[in-house]
Every structure is written in structure tokens, then in C-alpha cells.
Specification:
This protein has about 100 residues and is mostly helical. The protein has helices at about 5-25, 35-55, 60-80. It has 3 helices and no strands. The longest helix has 23 residues, at about 35-55. The model has no long low-confidence stretch (mean pLDDT about 95).
Length: about 100
């Protein structure tokens, strides 16, 4: 199966991951702030990597992979309660 990573698809995933990062940042579990901050830091670094791979290396595949890793960190944090989010569009959690 040969699927192309288009610039439109990348922009969609940059947008979704950035939105999830903002929601997670605003909904940190203050009792586990250090853990939540660690997950946010990892996600932010992967988003930065995605920008680097796309803009500097011109590698859409690595950019797409980095975005998926970033979102994985955010989703994992939401699943274990580090981020008090109720948005099943952005995270694998129940909606309100």
C-alpha cells in the first residue's frame, strides 16, 4: 500500500497535535505536575522535531512520524490521568 504524506495531511496533523498539546497543557493534574510536565516536554520536543524534519531536512515521512510520537505522548498522558481532558476527538478518553 503506497500512501503519500501530502502537505495537506501534514498540516492537518500539525494542527491536531498542537491543539491537543494546548488542551493537555491547560488540563495538567497538579498533584502529578512533574510527570505531566515530563510528558508535555516530550510531546513538545517531538513537535519541534517534526518542524525540523519538514522544514530543514525536507523529510515528510520523519515529520509525520514525529507528530505521531508527540500525539502518542499526549494520548498516553490523558489515558493515565496526567491531563484532565474529556475530548474523544483529540484523545482516547471519554467525552463529557
Amino acid at each position: 500500500m503506497n500512501k503519500t504524506i501530502t502537505s495537506e495531511k501534514l498540516q492537518k496533523y500539525f494542527s491536531i497535535t498542537t491543539e491537543a498539546l494546548e488542551k493537555a497543557s491547560a488540563a495538567r493534574d497538579t498533584a502529578r505536575k512533574q510527570q505531566a510536565d515530563d510528558f508535555l516536554d516530550m510531546a513538545s520536543r517531538y513537535v519541534q522535531d517534526a518542524h525540523y524534519f519538514l522544514n530543514e531536512k525536507k523529510d515528510a515521512v520523519l515529520a509525520f512520524a514525529a507528530l505521531n510520537y508527540a500525539h502518542g505522548w499526549l494520548d498516553a498522558g490523558a489515558r493515565i490521568g496526567l491531563f484532565k481532558v474529556k475530548d474523544s476527538r483529540l484523545f482516547t478518553v471519554d467525552s463529557e
